[in-house]
Each structure stands twice: as C-alpha cells, then as structure tokens.
Design brief:
Layout lengths: L2 E8 L11 H18 L4 E5 L1 H10 L1 H12 L3 E4 L13 H19 L5 E3 L7 H10 L3 E5 H7 L13 E3 L9 E7 L1 H11 L5 H15 L3 E7 L21 H16 L2 E2 L2 H11 L4 E2 L28 H17 L5 H10 L10 H17 L15 E2 L10 E4 L5 E5 L3 E6 L5 E7 L6 E4 L19 E6 L4 E4 L7 E5 L2 E10 L2 E10 L5 E8 L7 E9 L9 E5 L4 E5 L4 E2 L20 E6 L2 E7 L8 E7 L6 E9 L14 E6 L2
Parallel strand pairs: 1-2, 1-8, 1-9, 2-3, 4-5, 5-7, 6-10
Antiparallel strand pairs: 6-7, 11-19, 12-13, 13-14, 14-15, 15-16, 16-23, 17-18, 17-23, 19-20, 20-21, 21-22, 22-31, 23-30, 24-25, 24-27, 26-29, 27-28, 28-31, 29-30
Length: 658
C-alpha cells in the first residue's frame, strides 16, 4: 500500500502579497488548511516562521487557538522554519543561530509546541546549516530531493541510492547528522497544476501510481506554498485564473481520489520520516558538491543567486545585513528585538518580487537600525592617495619594478611576492607567486593555444572584469591599454588604472604589501549603473601546471567550514536561460575562500562582506593539457526578480598564499 505526506508552507511575508491582503490570505488559505486537517484523516504538516505566526496571532488570534488545538489532538504537525525565512547559506553563522532561537521561542509562546523537524528555507541547503539545525534541537530536516540527487551525481540512480541522513561540517565521525525527509519538486508542481485546472486528474493519478510503483517509499505528495490555493499572490502574469470553484475543495477531492483509487495511506511528516528511516539502510553523506555547493528547490532558474545578487538590490542589502550582524556581535548585543529586525531584513522575500511599499518600509527599517548602531549609510572610503605616472615613480629599496622590451608586461618583485601585469590588457595578472610557495605562480594568464580544444581557444586572463547584459545587448571587458599610476601608501606599493566603462569610469587598483605576502585587487565604480545583466570581477585563472591534484576549496556557508574537491564539471556562471544568467555560487559568508592542493595551502581569497557581499563562482572542467579552472566574483546577475536601480558596491579582493 503506497504512503504519502502533505506539508504546507505558510508565509505572510510572501514577496508579492500586499500588506493589506494578509487577512484575506488567512481567510482564503490558512483557515481552509486547518479545516482540511480537522475534517479529514489528513495529518498535514504546517510549516511557518515565527514572524508569520506572530502576524496571524495579531490579525486573527482564533486561527492560532484552533491550530494549537489541532496540534494537541494530533490532527496536524508543526514544522519548524525560524523567525524568518532566511537563506541560511548566505547569512552569517550567528544570525542563523538567532533565527532558529527566536523562531522556537515564538512556537513555544504562541502554540505551546516545539517542532521536531525543520524545513530548509526556500530549500536552499548547505552543509553548515545541518549543524545550525542540530544545535537548535531539531531531529530531522525536510529538503528537496531532486537537486540533491543532481548535486551527488545520482540523477539516474534508483531512489534507494539517495542518502537518508545529512552530514554537517567537520570530520565525518564527529559531524552532526540529521535524517532527511525528502520533498519532490515534480510531485508538488503536478498537484498544483491539477488543482489549478491545468492538468487532468486522471493523468495526475496515473503519474502518482507510476511513482508509487517505481519509488517504493513514502511519496512527498505536496511540500510547498499554501497561498496559491483560492488566492493568487500576483507574482507572475501567467498565474492560473481563479474560476470560482473552491481549490481547497478540489484539493480535498484529489486527496480522496488518491486514497480511493491508489489506496494511499496518509502519514504525518514525522511518521513519514520514521517510516523511511526504518525501511532503508542508513546512508549519511554531505548533500552538496563543488558543482552544486548550495542545492535549491525546483528548476535551475531557482538557484542561490536569486537571493544573492539579483532582485531590487540584493548586493547592497546583503552587505548591510553583514554589517549589522558584525556590529551586533562586536557590541555583545543580545537584545532579541535587534536580532529579530536583522533576521527580518535578511528574509528571502525582500530579495524577490517584493512590492514597492514593502520595499520602502524595509529600507526605512534598515537605515534606522544602521543609524542606531552608529553605522553610516555606506562604508567609508579609503584615505586620499597621491598618485604619479608610473614612468616617474621611483620604486622603494628592495623592490624590483620594470617593464619588458615591448612595454606590455610590468614586472614587480618584493621579498614576498612576484607579480607580472599586462598593461595591454587592463593591468590583468600575467602571473602571481609568493615566496612561501617557492615562487610557484598559481594564478595568472593562459594564452590562446594553451588548451588543445577549440572550445577553449581564447586568452584566459586574471584580475579582469566582465559585464554582460542581454537586455542592452552589451558585452564589456576591461582588456584595454592602460597607463598605470603608482603610489606608496600605508606600507603598500599601489598601482591603478582608470578606464571608460559602461557609461562611467572603472578604476582598478592593486596594492602589493611590502611587509607581507599579500596582493589586493580593487574595483571602484564611478557613475556606473547596476546592470540588467551580470557583472563579474576579480576573475582568476588557476595555473594547474604549478599545482598538485587534488585541489580543494574551503568556505563557510552559514555555518562551519565546508570542503569541496574540484573533481567534477562545475559551471556556476553558465546561464540557465537567456533570462537567467547563472546557476550556482558559493555562500562564503565570512568573506573567504581557501584553496589547497595535495601539498597543502595554496591561496586564500579574502574580501569584506560588510562592504560588498559578492557571490563567488567557479568554472572547472577537465581539459588537455591541464584542467581549466577559474574563480570569479559576481556583483550582479539577471533573473526574473531583477529590477532596474540598486547600487554597485566597490569590491576589494586580497590574495595571500594561505
């Protein structure tokens, strides 16, 4: 006999729902859900944030009373979320901890209940979040199965090959481990289409029957939004039209048909998780990979960059959230209200189809908290620097600074760093090596002809900038002749070049430390608008001939340090479609990526997310005679949430030998 579960996600902060329509959402969506649980033997899971629960309590307290009674009677199950729907892999570790702490407090105070299972917010998963959930006391998590299987190379494997448990960070023997209740994007989208009248019920029932026969496990019949039945959020012009027939009634009839025609037995989410765990051998694994470091729900257009560098102004909003979190931690602030405000500013819905009034309200709260914590509207710039033409600049003692015979390559060497720059290509890095790495150049340029395949028949520089806008049909780079200027400032030898770019000026700076092994790349934008497209800076090409396999990238994604071996095709910056410019990125929530090879540390990349919370992306593929690997940092991407306006933040990237 097949078994299945239903889990509904309740979110009064849904981006495109106007504030004044929230009572209507409760009436048309949330009350019918409770009646479904009360009148039928459907032990549904109901997941909502502490913020949403608090809003419902203020608008319709009887709903909370009824929900609490149904929970006590075992007619439904509370599924955890947090105080807000934060994208954990993009938020600071301490903010994630507070988000869970505040959410659990709201459940206890308003429902006298503590959830055993947590749903991964927006199904945006990282290994570090497993530790956050385990620390909060959760005994299991709900995550989308399809994209985890894709990340682990299991897309064509039987479902029995899917891990049963998610490993956290650290050594496998000591890592946190949580059992996983899997959701399924195709199953929940199929149910939505039947209820909306876009798919015949007979066709749906036949599909579920095939899935039950093939999968042989508990079916995640539905695991998604409640606000799309008998209500339309207004997010897309292509939303199904309301016909007047009750969609909740149609959903109940569909559930009856699943019982009558297929013999489906309904389980609560906790019972479903226990059943799956009892029927399958334990398989505990890290649920991400270097190609998919942050698996997300549904199709490729729903990737982590949707909340990182798109929307109305994700980059600036995320950067300020990091500033606020850092300030709260530095002050030892344990005031729950301040952390609630920060969690609300870090909520996912501000980064998608948020309405104009709600966006304006969020900006006012953001500025108010910044000012109350003594932070200015934007990070302050650096002290003034006196520049002079490179031709008249005298290098300090112990520093070699000269050009090659062609006047194209500029060679610079200190006691710690060897650097060659290409003046013909915008001061890109020809090669960079450090004394502590035996002067091995691990970052630089691979000239056309290095690779055997015509697919890679181009020059691949380091330190460059690339802007692509299909909306404006523009592709711009910084690969132009420059006349560098130089200066000595604060213990650094500095070089800069200014180039016309995208209607303004791009100023590139390099700061080479004279005391340590460190090079800082700076990208400063003057009168350049945030593009309706992608803008990637700090593009770095690895020189594999000086590295020893395997290579591993290390970073934090909302929790502890995660490790990604470069062992599979990774194309984070590849477009998902003509309207979605990328498919993946690393969270790197502490502003750091570390690269190691078989010999040990190779390179550390560090930036300040409180100034610019850029999204690091990886390109890696096998090639001949060496693999092809590039890292780049996105300041803007294009998808259906992107809106004109917003701001570009200057970006500085520091390279050290690790």
């Amino acid at each position: 006999m097949p078994q299945g579960y239903l889990l509904f996600h309740l979110n009064l902060a849904f981006s495109s729902i106007k504030t004044e329509l929230r009572p209507q959402v409760i009436e048309k969506c949330y009350w019918p859900l409770l009646r479904l649980a009360e009148k039928r033997t459907l032990p549904v899971g109901i997941e909502l944030t502490g913020w949403t629960l608090t809003q419902i309590a203020a608008l319709d307290p009887q709903w909370v009373v009824k929900f609490a009674a149904l929970l006590k009677a075992g007619r439904c199950e509370l599924i955890g979320s947090g105080w807000t729907q934060m994208i954990g892999p993009l938020a600071a570790h301490e903010a994630n901890r507070w988000n869970q702490r505040l959410g659990l407090q709201a459940y206890r105070e308003l429902l006298d209940a503590t959830p055993a299972i947590v749903l991964v917010n927006e199904m945006a998963f990282s290994t570090g979040m497993v530790d956050v959930y385990a620390e909060a006391g959760y005994q299991g998590l709900v995550m989308d199965r399809d994209n985890v299987r894709l990340a682990l190379g299991l897309a064509g494997a039987p479902l029995s090959a899917t891990p049963t448990h998610a490993l956290g960070c650290g050594d496998a023997a000591q890592a946190s481990t949580l059992p996983v209740l899997w959701g399924d994007s195709i199953l929940f989208q199929s149910l939505q289409r039947v209820v909306h009248g876009d798919k015949p019920m007979a066709e749906y029932l036949a599909y579920v029957a095939r899935r039950a026969e093939r999968d042989g496990t508990v079916l995640p019949i539905y695991c998604n939004d409640a606000e799309i039945f008998d209500f339309r959020p207004g997010r897309f012009t292509t939303e199904a039209v309301l016909t007047g027939e009750s969609e909740w009634r149609k959903l109940a009839q569909l559930c009856d048909r699943l019982e009558a025609d297929l013999g489906l037995q309904w389980l609560s989410p906790s019972a479903a998780l226990a059943t799956v765990q009892a029927s399958l051998p334990r398989q505990a694994r890290v649920l991400s990979s270097v190609a998919h470091p942050i698996p997300v729900k549904k199709q490729a257009k729903y990737n982590i960059n949707r909340w990182a560098v798109t929307g109305r102004d994700d980059l600036a909003l995320n950067s300020d959230c990091h500033r606020l979190c850092t300030a709260l931690q530095a002050a030892g602030n344990t005031t729950p209200e301040d952390w609630r405000t920060l969690c609300e500013l870090w909520a996912s819905d501000l980064r998608t189809h948020i309405t104009d009034p709600r966006w304006a309200e969020a900006q006012a709260r953001r500025q108010a908290l910044l000012q109350r914590l003594g932070l200015s509207d934007a990070p302050t710039g650096t002290a003034p620097i006196t520049w002079q033409p490179l031709a008249s600049f005298a290098a300090p003692a112990g520093v070699q600074l000269d050009s090659d015979d062609s006047g194209i390559l500029l060679n610079l060497r200190t006691a710690h760093t060897a650097l060659t720059l290409n003046q013909r290509r915008g001061l890109t890095l020809q090669s960079l090596g450090f004394a502590t790495n035996d002067w091995r150049p691990v970052v630089g340029t691979l000239a056309q002809g290095h690779f055997d395949s015509i697919e890679l028949g181009a020059d691949f520089y380091s330190g460059g900038v690339l802007l692509e806008s299909p909306v404006n049909r523009a592709r711009l780079t910084d690969l132009e002749w420059v006349q560098p200027e130089a200066a000595l400032h604060d213990g650094d030898l500095m070089l800069r070049a200014r180039l016309p770019f995208a209607g303004g000026v791009l100023e590139k700076r390099l700061a080479i430390s004279l005391q340590t092994a460190s090079v800082r790349l700076g990208y400063h934008f003057e009168a350049i608008e945030r593009p309706l497209g992608s803008l990637r800076v700090g593009v770095l090409t690895l020189l594999h001939e000086h590295l020893v396999e395997p290579l591993t990238l290390h970073c934090h994604q909302g929790g502890g340090e995660e490790h990604f071996t470069l062992n599979q095709l990774s194309t984070h910056a590849a477009a998902a479609s003509t309207l979605v410019s990328s498919t993946a990125a690393f969270g790197a929530t502490d502003g750091r990526l570390r690269l190691t090879d078989a010999r040990g540390p190779v390179l550390t990349l560090q930036w300040d997310p409180t100034r610019c919370a850029a999204a690091p992306m990886l390109t890696h593929q096998d090639a001949s005679p060496t693999p092809f690997t590039r890292l780049k940092f996105s300041l803007a991407e294009l998808d259906d949430t992107t809106r004109p306006g917003g701001t570009l933040r200057d970006f500085e990237l520091t390279l050290t030998p690790g």
